[in-house]
């Protein structure tokens, strides 16, 4: 089977939680699990373990998906918190995922980075974020509403000729869902823009230019949540199919 390593979300000790209250939980959101699980594909949640154990686990993976979740702490992109530290981020998960991303990138295996994952990817290559898009870019759209959650959508523009435009050029929909309050400010080195929000210019997808085209891609939307809005947003399957094609290609090379 093809094994796809998934970065974990963390839930920390909570006295009000009835089960495992004093414990930290590692998890994958169910829509993400369903999106990634297909015949012959095994998603593997990567635990937060020591480097020697982590290296052994990652060597068995054929590709990597970095999922969404909590904010990235501004200290990780060398900024001081704004708004009296209103968005402190998650330094514990940051440290874990930066170790994971570094090893995934250096392995040469395909990477699909989603929402927080795309922001992590940007920071890894030296970029920065808007800690809160609407605060620092007040002219921007509302990209996240806690109550409406994955029922918000907006249009996107593909970078013409680039890989996502090639994948989706026949798709009549040009909308994606929007569940993020942070977004890319300064683009990292060796990255290119693959899609933007035309109404406010917010970066919606990126790719790594020094890898094979489409091998390392980040998207700001949540393809795994697309079923909520059905045909209003782009079909999530072509993106994942393309990622798996890259995984199969790399896997075949490694088996030669």
| CATH class value | Alpha Beta
| Terminal Cα span | 17 Å
CATH superfamily: Class I glutamine amidotransferase (GATase) domain
Radius of gyration: 18 Å
Q: Give me the CATH architecture, please.
A: 3-Layer(aba) Sandwich
Q: Average pLDDT value?
A: 94
Largest sheet: 8 strands, mixed
Supply the helix-strand structural class: alpha/beta
Tell me, what's the shape? Answer: globular
Strand order of the largest sheet: 4-1-5-6-14-13-12-9
Number of strands: 14
Number of helices: 7
Could you walk me through the main structural features you see in this protein, from its secondary elements to its overall organization?
Helix 2 (51-59) crosses helix 3. This protein has an 8-stranded mixed β-sheet with strand order 4-1-5-6-14-13-12-9, with helices on both faces. A two-stranded antiparallel sheet has the order 2-3. It has one domain (2-255): Class I glutamine amidotransferase (GATase) domain (Rossmann fold, 3-Layer(aba) Sandwich). The mean pLDDT is 94. It has 7 helices and 14 strands. The protein has helices at 30-36, 51-59, 91-107, 116-124, 133-136, 163-168, 237-255; strands at 2-7, 9-11, 25-27, 41-46, 63-66, 111-114, 129-130, 153-155, 157-158, 175-177, 183-184, 191-196, 203-208, 216-219. With 256 residues, the chain is an alpha/beta fold.
């Amino acid at each position: 089977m093809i094994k796809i390593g998934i970065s974990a979300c963390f839930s920390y000790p909570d006295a009000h939680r009835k089960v495992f209250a004093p414990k930290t939980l590692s998890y994958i959101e169910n829509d993400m699990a369903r999106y990634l699980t297909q015949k012959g594909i095994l998603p593997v949640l990567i635990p937060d373990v020591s480097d020697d154990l982590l290296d052994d686990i990652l060597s068995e993976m054929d590709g990597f998906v970095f999922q969404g979740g909590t904010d990235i702490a501004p200290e990780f992109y060398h900024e001081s918190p704004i708004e009296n530290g209103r968005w402190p981020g998650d330094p514990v998960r940051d440290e874990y995922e930066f170790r994971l991303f570094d090893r995934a990138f250096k392995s040469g295996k395909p990477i699909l980075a989603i929402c927080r994952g795309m922001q992590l990817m940007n920071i890894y290559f030296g970029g920065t974020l808007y800690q809160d898009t609407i605060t620092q870019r007040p002219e921007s759209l509302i990209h996240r509403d806690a109550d409406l959650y994955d029922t918000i959508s907006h249009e996107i523009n593909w970078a013409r000729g680039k890989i996502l435009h090639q994948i989706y050029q026949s798709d009549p929909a040009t909308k994606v869902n929007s569940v993020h309050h942070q977004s890319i400010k300064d683009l990292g080195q060796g990255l290119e823009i693959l899609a933007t929000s035309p109404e406010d210019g917010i970066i919606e997808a990126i790719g790594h230019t020094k890898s094979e085209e489409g091998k390392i891609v980040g998207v700001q939307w949540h393809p795994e949540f697309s079923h909520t809005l059905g045909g209003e947003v782009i079909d999530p399957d072509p993106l994942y199919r393309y990622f798996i094609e890259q995984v199969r290609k790399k896997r075949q090379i490694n088996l030669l």
